[in-house]
Design brief:
This protein is mainly beta. The protein has a single domain, classed as outer membrane lipoprotein receptor (LolB), chain A, CATH 2.50.20.10. The protein has two helices and twelve strands. Strands 1, 2, 3, 4, 5, 6, 7, 8, 9, 10, 11 and 12 form a twelve-stranded antiparallel sheet that branches. β9 (155-163) and β10 form a beta hairpin. The longest helix is centred in the N-terminal third of the chain and has 16 residues, at 32-47. The termini are far apart. 33% of the residues are buried.
Length: 213
């Protein structure tokens, strides 16, 4: 489960799950100009609906993998990794489910305890529980660095946006040990919607329950 401690630490989890709801009054320390960018990012994330595209992930060792994602806000996203990995990561609105077909493993994490909770929440609020640690201008837009104020030791997530047009282009999760996982969205195309079962992922080999009677 290195990936979820990578992707999910890149996407959603880390060596320990990255709590997706962070810092408070510390956001007041940023400038008015930076605050306008934070508000712009929150409005953009709030407005994301159904979309699909390709992504490239780079893990802490520099190894890359890629695949296709399907987004249906609020609540749902699916990541399909290309072969030979074949990994599936599906957020269904309540949990993040991960199936590794090579290792035959299935894992489930509460969605609110992962960075995906930030993207998929019905109301995107980059204040209060989320601390905006830094706002940096880039050549094509800007980057926000966020941290969970209640669990600052768990690490941080950096969201990068283009401004013209406004678009989320990548995020980098830095875990509590300083290891970084980068997920770059190489394309993002609006969609008219997806079949509901696209965001359903169940354990293909569930353990039998206790016998009754």
């Amino acid at each position: 489960m290195k990936l979820v401690r990578t992707l999910m630490v890149g996407l959603t989890l880390a060596a320990a799950p990255f709590a997706a709801a962070p810092v408070s009054a510390q956001t007041a320390a940023i400038s008015a100009a930076d605050r306008s960018l934070v508000d712009k990012a929150a409005a953009y994330l709030q407005g994301l609906g159904s979309a699909t595209g390709r992504f490239v992930q780079t893990d802490p060792r520099g190894a890359t993998s890629q695949g296709t994602y399907y987004l249906s806000r609020p609540g749902k996203i699916r990541f399909e990794y290309d072969k030979p990995s074949g990994l599936l990561v599906v957020a269904d609105g309540n949990n993040v489910n991960i199936f590794d077909p090579r290792l035959k493993t299935f894992d489930r994490y509460p969605q609110g305890a992962t960075p995906l909770g930030l993207f998929l929440a019905k109301q995107v609020k980059l204040d209060g529980r989320i601390r905006v640690e830094r706002v940096t201008r880039t050549q094509d837009g800007f980057e926000l660095v966020l941290r969970d104020s209640r669990r600052p030791q768990d690490g941080s997530i950096a969201l990068r946006f283009d401004e013209t047009p406004m678009r989320l282009t990548e995020w980098t999760v830095t875990d509590g040990r300083g290891q970084r996982t980068r997920v770059r969205l190489t394309s993002l195309q609006p969609s008219g919607g997806f079949a509901k079962n696209l965001f359903v992922l169940r354990d293909p080999n569930p353990r039998p329950g206790p016998r009754k009677g």
